[in-house]
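PROTEIN DATA CARD
Card holder: DUF2304 domain-containing protein
Chain length: 64
Origin: Streptomyces fungicidicus
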Amino acid sequence: MAISISVVLLLSVLAVIFLRNGGLKISHALVCLLLGFYLASTSIAPTIHSGLTATADIVGSLRP
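Structure generated from the sequence above:
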């Protein structure tokens, strides 16, 4: 749960930065949002979730 909230927060911050810099249009953001909702309801959603969890574990285990 904490990982998914962190990812959502990070992606939201990146989207706001891109919107303010003009690199991301509102229409592009809406398409990405809809794609995320559709992907969440497909059978590939558990695979995406486990891939993100594994990536977060790897990044979390790195020591600077």
